[in-house]
Model the fold of this input.
Amino acid sequence: MYTRQLARHLPIPVVKLGSPCNSCDIREVSLCGALADEELERLRQMVATVHCEPGQAAFHEGDPAESVFNVVSGTMKLYKLLPDGRRLITGFLFPGDFLGIALHDTYAYTAEAVELAHLCRFPRRRLILLMEEIPLLEHRMLGHAADELVAAQDQMLLLGRKTAKERIASFLLMLAERAARLGQRENPIRVPMGRADMADYLGLTTETVSRTLTQLRNSGIIATKDRGRIEVKAREALVALRESG
Amino acid sequence: MYTRQLARHLPIPVVKLGSPCNSCDIREVSLCGALADEELERLRQMVATVHCEPGQAAFHEGDPAESVFNVVSGTMKLYKLLPDGRRLITGFLFPGDFLGIALHDTYAYTAEAVELAHLCRFPRRRLILLMEEIPLLEHRMLGHAADELVAAQDQMLLLGRKTAKERIASFLLMLAERAARLGQRENPIRVPMGRADMADYLGLTTETVSRTLTQLRNSGIIATKDRGRIEVKAREALVALRESG
DNA sequence: CGACACCTTGACCAACGTCAAATCCGGTGG
DNA sequence: CCACCGGATTTGACGTTGGTCAAGGTGTCG
Done:
């Protein structure tokens, strides 16, 4: 049923870091934002820039966890699979987001690019050592983990108790809010992922996602522009839908 | 539909700490396990023991987050509510578990006792200050948060993609594994929570939980002894069910 | 012994999934 | 510029799982 071909595990091209971290666009929203210049230098010594083409994985569930990543640009999705191919996307990552926080020996999920993504890659062991030296780094990490935990709990509520319409409304608003936080325009919402990814994130099927969007369009709440862009016509209606009906 | 009376917000009785942390039963599985005696003393100075009767909340979703807790004995449940009363339990907590890790200003969920529970309560602000002094404490915290994150992702997979039978099988095995980790006997599984709590944890209804347990009983996979105890007759069958079928 | 809360069971229903067929688009090559 | 290809999306008809509503049991505690 949910079977699909898995992205091949191509080696990821490594690019020498061109610009120094100081001028990094997303520094302020990332881990590195908290560091003084000298500490940043330590980080920089261990970083490599990698990129993932759409459909290409940075790592797979179960792989030994050797690196952690920071998303610089693009969109990534994290997912888990059941043995029969059913898939659940546990999250989408946007610029500034951090990846591979688990301090475990293997990755708990696959990370795959939705759109061409650029990532900073850090050797996990060295980063852990650096955290012992720079408590602020660990503190930042903990703050980040706490945020993710809160988001995960909201997502559990969505998956366990919300209707299809509520899930779609929540999702669209999440994308809009995320864009706003990154300083991007939020009204025609940029929706970089396809229906299948939305479905696997929301615990639905592509058909239900599609039908629900059609319903919202027919109610005049949204309008679908070109592919990958949805305009919100009645934000308050979406907000009302998010949590009840 | 899911409406139910909320536990009244009774003041929690505070008990002076009788026995020192050194002899605490759960020290080895808790945060405090990592600390040297002198550091433990610092922690101890700020701790209070509180208890929650079944149905009583230690705190509610949205309350200002003034304390963090460690479960010493008993079982707690954490839940979130939608405005119309639909409820999702995001987790059950057992002895040694930590509560209120989020470094936010308000609690993201309600924490309520399933069974009489004893908790260690720490003032959140002072604990955060202590973490700045004792990096190991923060490190422990981060490890804990990472574990919770992994568990949350597994739960999302369950809620988003598993069938009722798979959810129940996963749940029973989780309880058994948890008991084993605490050094308790795992075969007649102790199930301290009622069907309604199981349902709200698994994204089902009490009726479906009940019917599914009946099905498992009729297949000879489990046997229900007295209330609050389920015997596993065919563990392998349960394990097979957990992820497909 | 009776009350009450919890659990189980049954009959029915609806939301969402499944299967299959259009339709829409974006890209490509003539 | 236009025809065509192929994947993504939409739509339709129908099926199924799990939810809803409503009785009955069952055990526990006073």
The longest strand of chain A covers residues 67-73. Residues 1-12 of chain A have pLDDT under 50 and may be disordered.
